Amino acid sequence: MRSERAAFPAAVVVVLLLSWWWIVAMARDMYGAMDGPSAWMMTSIWDGTHLLLLWTMWAVMMAAMMLPTAWPMLAMYGTLSGSPPTQRRSSHLYLFAGAYVLVWALFSVVATFVQRMLAEVLLLSPMMELASPRASAAFLILAGVYQWTPLKRVCLRSCRSPISFLIRHWRAGSLGAFRMGVEHGVYCVGCCWALMLLLFVGGVMNLYVIAALTTLAAIEKVARAGELGSGLSGGVLIAIAVWILARG
């Protein structure tokens, strides 16, 4: 029983450590010699292999950033799915978490497409950040305004209330666990997609930006004043956009 209880948190920690190790290695090389893990990005030919590598970069980054914010939901599901833990119930927890990560992997397909589109119209620099102040301001305004929308509030409340979400969406069995993981992932993407697009503003592989967005998403979902912080952050993002535009 104790080993079953410890196995899943240990697996999540291993995934997070590997994901962050890969991100740090990529970022350090990109802002350094560019002859290591990030060398494949220095190409003018974006064939299937390079697009797959780009998607992998996004998928790993989304797992590293969003899995920590989903831990309260995963822990609550593990508690409600049954005690004592059995092999079958433990597999349900892995299915729930895997479905959640899968949704962010699908979001990474969209992010990959957006990045290539921005690069094609010369709005993205080789360092994977927006080259136009106006484009940066537009992304900031989009994210800031979205922070105030009813859709954002609905998705955020679902993420902030694990027990309420699980009671409303509960389904038994392996398929039920997978479906609930997908539904939670959809709410989570609905909550955070605009914030994730801000990676283009500060640099997709900028560790400071990655850490800041991860922290903001976690505060929104976990802190008592998370909903208030979400609204305040929207105002801050719009203010930064106005400042960028004012600078010309």
Describe the structure.
- Helix content is 79%, strand content 0%.
- The protein is an all-alpha fold and 248 residues long.
- The longest helix is centred in the middle third of the chain and has 34 residues, at 87-120.
- The mean pLDDT is 91.
- The protein has one domain (2-247).
- The chain has helices at residues 2-30, 48-80, 87-120, 133-146, 150-160, 162-169, 173-197, 199-202, 207-222, 226-247.
Compile the SSE list and pairings:
Layout: H1 2-30, H2 48-80, H3 87-120, H4 133-146, H5 150-160, H6 162-169, H7 173-197, H8 199-202, H9 207-222, H10 226-247
Descriptive labels:
single chain, 248 residues
Question: What is the structure about, briefly put?
Answer:
The chain has 248 residues and is mainly α.
* Structural domain count: 1
Distance between the termini: 62 Å
- Rounded mean pLDDT is 91
What does the main sheet amount to? none
SSE topology string: HHHHHHHHHH
- What is the CA-based Rg, rounded? 19 Å
| Residue runs with pLDDT of under 50 for 5 or more positions | none
* Amount of helix: over 70%
